[in-house]
Amino acid sequence: MIKPFEDPPQIGEWCREKRLGNGGFGVVTLWRNKQTQQAVAIKKFHILQDRSEITDKHCERWRNEVKLMTETVQNDHIVRTVDVQPRAFIEELLRSSANGLPVLCMEYCEGGDLRRVLNRVENCSGLREQDVRDVLRSLRSAIAYLHSLKITHRDIKPENLVLKQHGDRFIYKLTDLGYAKALDKQSLNASLVGTVEYIAPDLIYCDRYNCSVDYWSMGVIGFEIVTGVRPFIPHAPITRWMMHVQQKKSADIAITEDNRENYTYHTEIFAENHISTCLRKQLERWLMLALEWNPKQRGYVPYSATVAEGTPPKSVTFAEDSRPGGSTVLKIFSLLDQILEKRILVLFSLHDCRWIDLEVTPDTSMAAVREHVYQLTGIPVDEIEFILPLEQKQPRVGSDTRPYDLYLSDLSSGKPMVYVAHRASRESIVQRDLKPRIPKSITDVFQNIKVKLKPHMLRQFIANAYYFIANEQRLYVLLLDGVRNYGLTLNDAIARRKEEIGRMNKVVYGIVGGVEYHKLTVSHTRDALNAGKRIPSASFETASHQWEEKCSRVETNVRKLAEMADKISKRYESVLKRSRDALRHALLQEYEQQDYFGLKTVEGRYEQTRARILEKITNEKSHMDMSQAVYECLKRRDVLLRDAGFLELQRQLLDVRHEMQEIEKVLEKVVELTEKYKRELARLTLEHQDEVWKMLSSVDAKGHAVTTNGTLSNGGGTPHGPCIADIDDMVPVFASAKTRGIGSSSIAGSNGTPKFLLGGPMTPLPSTVTNGSIESHHREEEGPNVDELIAANETLIMT
User: Fold this and answer.
1) Full DSSP string of 206-227
2) Where are the compositionally biased (Polar residues) regions (predicted)?
3) Among 89, 108, 127, where does a domain finish?
4) Residue 1 is part of a domain; what is its CATH number?
5) Are 439 and 462 spatial neighbours (Cβ–Cβ below 8 Å)?
6) At the N or C end, where does the chain have fewer CB atoms within 10 A?
7) Would residue 786 count as lying in a domain?
8) CA-closest candidate to residue 73, choices 157, 180, 196
9) In terms of domains, do 531 and 665 share one?
10) Looking at residue 22, what DSSP letter applies?
11) Residue 550 domain-assigned?
């Protein structure tokens, strides 16, 4: 049997699914169309919770909300009304409506409300920064819009902020305008039940108020979403609450009570939160405006302060006061806009497991970021290394990188935008013996473990205990993620050298082939000239000795160079393989899904203790369960950080990095020497050709050679002296590399034949002449000496 004013379970194609919530005199029910699957939230006037008589004032307020929602309010962050068909469905709902009052058809926000989000265990110490920003941005938009319509909400609380699915994210929307417009003492009573801290004090003790009551509610919610608790002794009765809140200074944004009934007034947000330090400090300034006791100062700053900041002045008036040119300026919205628009670059130091953040602008330099990191970590500026995670669009930080461009707008992953490493560290990437940062409330209990905590202190203790354990889980995962990104960056840097290594080998072995070609050319020249017996024996032997000595010296150095190139290649391939092997380490596989600290069990312990607090059955041992969880976390933390696999992984990456740095030093020198020996080989070839030409040209009719100062010209070099320096003297780093045992090498090609430098110098025709002058052998047709030339050079043709 359907009760009076109760809706039937089905009306046509529409089925009633469940009740979504109810307020002082409204109830919201979910209805779904079986055919279209359209879901709507139907809000109807309902019997008052305290069963008091329905007055004309109640009916007027209800009609006012329906009118506002359907005819006036249009904002993305306020729940919108929807058109529902057929009309017969609405008419049937009106039949069961009390006093025939209209119904309100609204979009269904399937994400529940903010209260449900805050009640989740993982949010006991506040929301993540992305969610904090989303809530504040939504509140600012909705409230500023209502105020622009001269509408004051007056009942802003987490239960009235609902979540609407939008793509892969949720949008927060304000709802329940039932208390908008006029509000008397009687209607206020329903709102005061359980939500006193969201109501501005002036709504309680004053008969007149203005829109600043909504600023107070914004401030309370803002503090709660950051810390997980309301700012002013939420456990205290309203009389004691009023007394202490009234005594606070303008800079005070929170009041707490300890286990001995001592009260502390705070000017800072509690340390146990999930937002960046930079955002926290900026929100503290904003909260001072929002949580100002004096309603005429709430949300405003002195005109002089605004001018000092360079903000254009704006005259405002209070409530019904229409005085022009007031002495204060409204800043509650503009200051929040400035805060939310700022780009905060978030970094994570792998060296000391520390979060680092700073505000960045288009003019911020990487040098400024390095200095900020140095101030917090102590890592020397020139030893700071920035590692970009995969979420970044650019692979590495370059000389032209702007910190402003490293900002990532999507913070939902909870990861840093940049990792920081200590470049000079040789033992480990993560500093040894990292000390845990334990909340003070936990250390206080550990120092007096047998103390009986009052319910509000017990609630704080279990929240901080869960925060600490969950934070240790998060930090360890970040360390693994940072080490993985360190390895990826290292592997990328090594892989980018592969092409350079290939070019080096190609050039070096091309020079080896060129030397072989020059060596054979010298040998062929000697045999050809000696066969003719046209040059005096002493002069010829001296010249041949010089040619062979120069060729031998350059051959020795080039072969050493080829040996070094081969060693570099082998070491490089080894380093590349080991860097890839490190990335396949067991610790780096699916680490983000691992529960290293048994968080599921800790959540169960937290929920059990919270249930005892709600049921008021706590005792002197109620905190022991979570105390044990903290103790187990500390032991587990020590085991994980000292794990042999974790330490071995870091050493492996550092060894690979160090060896690659050594390879790069030698590679740079080898590349430099290849260019040098290419020039030397070309010079030797030209000198040899020139000397042979001069030798043939200077033979007189009697077959005597002309000498200069008793020797053949060597192209400007020292007579009979070596013109090629030894490679061991020029490249000491090779010798040191050799002592390290870089590996073995081979200078020959795969088929045992020498390499040949394509496009290199060729032996000119005069060096092949055996008898007479060139002119005597010149003919119009091909002569018999062509076959001799082909046969002599046949072995030099490269395949």
Assistant:
1) -S---THHHHHHHHHHHHHHHH
2) 765-774
3) 108
4) 3.30.200.20
5) no
6) N
7) yes
8) 180
9) yes
10) E
11) yes
| Phi, psi angle pair for 579, to nearest 5° | -65, -35
- Give, for 188, the enclosing helix (H) or strand (E): helix 185-192
Could you tell me the residue range of the domain that residue 353 belongs to?
Answer: 343-425
Q: Are residues 526 and 406 in the same domain?
A: no
Cβ neighbours of residue 658 under 8 Å, at least 6 residues apart? Answer: 426
Specify the amino acid at residue 120.
Answer: R
Residue 735 covered by a domain: yes
Q: Please tell me whether residues 533 and 408 are part of one structural domain.
A: no
Instruction: Give the tokens for residue 739.
Output: 């002592």
Q: Are residues 662 and 520 in the same domain?
A: yes
- Reference 258, options 440, 118, 119, 125; nearest CA is 440
CATH number at residue 389: 3.10.20.90
Tokens of 113: 């409300």
Sheet hosting strand 26-33, strand order edge to edge: 10-11, 14-22, 26-33, 39-45, 104-107
Q: Tokens for 185? A: 């003492």
- Say whether both 663 and 792 belong to one domain: yes
Q: Which residues contact 715 (CB under 8 A, 6 or more apart)?
A: 683, 686, 687, 690, 691
Q: Beta strands 254-257 and 328-330: pairing type?
A: unpaired
605 and 427 in contact (C-beta within 8 Å)? Answer: no
Distance CA 250, CA 255 (A): 12
Let me know whether 407 and 521 are in one domain.
Answer: no
If asked whether residues 667 and 790 sit together in one domain, one would say yes
Q: How many domains does the chain have?
A: 3
Q: Dihedral sign for Cα 236, 238, 244, 248, please.
A: positive
The DSSP secondary-structure symbol of 113 reads: B
- 3-state secondary structure (DSSP) of residue 175: coil
Give the span between the Cα atoms of 100 and 81, in whole angstroms: 20
For the chain, list residues with pLDDT below 70: 1-5, 23-25, 47-54, 98, 178-196, 303-326, 530-537, 699-799
- Asked if residue 531 and residue 420 are part of one domain, the reply reads no
The answer as to whether 583 is a domain residue is yes
Q: Which residues contact 441 (CB under 8 A, 6 or more apart)?
A: 457, 460, 461, 464
| H-helix or E-strand spanning residue 537 | helix 537-583
Buried b (16+ CB within 10 A) or exposed e, 525-556: bbebbeeeebbeeebbebbbebbeebbebbbe
DSSP 390: T
Q: Which of 50, 398, 462, 3 is nearest to 229 (CA)?
A: 462
Single-letter amino acid code for the residue at 230:
R
CA 711/CA 708 separation, integer angstroms: 6
DSSP states of 46-79: ---TT-PPP-HHHHHHHHHHHHIIIII---TTBP
Q: Which of 73, 89, 108 is the last residue of a domain?
A: 108
Among 294, 175, 308, 318, which residue's Cα sits nearest to residue 245?
Answer: 294
